[in-house]
Amino acid sequence: MLTTDLAAGVRAPGEPELADLTAIAHRDAPGADERRRLTPEAASAISAAGFPRHFVPRRLGGAAGGFAALVASASAVAEACGSTAWCATLYAAHGRLAAYLPAEGQDELWDRGPDTRIAAAVVPPQGTASAYDGGWLLDGAWRPTSGVDHADWVLLASWTPGEHGREHRIFAVPRSEVSVVDTWHSSGLRGTGSNTVTAEAVRVPGHRSVTLDALLRQPADAARCHTVPYPMVAALLFAAPLLGIARGALRAWTDERAGAASPHPTTATVLAQASARIHSAGLLLAGAAGRADHGEITPLTVAENRRDAVTAAALCREAVDTLFRASGMRAQSPDSALQRAWRDATAAAGHGALDPDAAARSYADVALAPRDGGPR
Question: Is pTM, for the whole model, over 0.70?
């Protein structure tokens, strides 16, 4: 069960599964970098902690949970290992995405229970999809696909023709029907195993497909987590692991400096500024998660959420970068936790969902739009 203590960023009492996952993540973090994938034990612990089922509809045994709980749990795990938290968060997010499939597709995907792990490569559309006999034929390659080594299903997206032009269409495919190519040789988030998926004439029935714009509509009688348009929460979910990575970096740097007989003259300034940035990021994500869980859904609140999540991610990246540079040669050691945090934070902040220019434009489009038929 996922924690709801977002402000503190720690697990709530009575949640041993999350504690077990965090312990495994901490132990496996250096090895995950070397293997470039998670261990089966870590993947199983992610499921036991409730991440894959977090947004699964209740009728299928899922939790249909909230965004604040997910952000808190993801950031807690990321303090131990950014790659583990990244995969855990995306398994949850992809469960929410799959919940927009037609009912028959949902039933097929979760026929063995709500803990199905789902990987995805849906933005941008890649590969090709050709219509055939009420379904689709997939060919090509999709990358990156985080956590695919331990996934049961994969969501892939391609452009397809539609009534009003081309459509961004998503397809659910059993992991066993695609191939994985080892292409993930990254500087950061190495343990996510975000490799390339290839498909050769893979058939997908129509009930396992949905267009991306369906995620902008509010399904009737759906849980709150399924009525929130994806632009309101996409950046929030990608920023959550970054918050934990930054908190872990701050802890590692503080442990280095604690009790030093002759503190460096910049120590106080670095500590104060980095910790303030991370604290501010936590408050921004708490506010965005709260709006997603309980706030009014309007064009402005959607844009505000995206703005705040992207800003929080930038604050975390800046804080980690400051701590890394202030650590000097100690951070150059290959076994430095601070170096790993710096690499992971840099990689995570580069995700397209956290693009500050795109977020700024979407916010300005709403905030500066004419009101009541005229300029503001």
Answer: yes
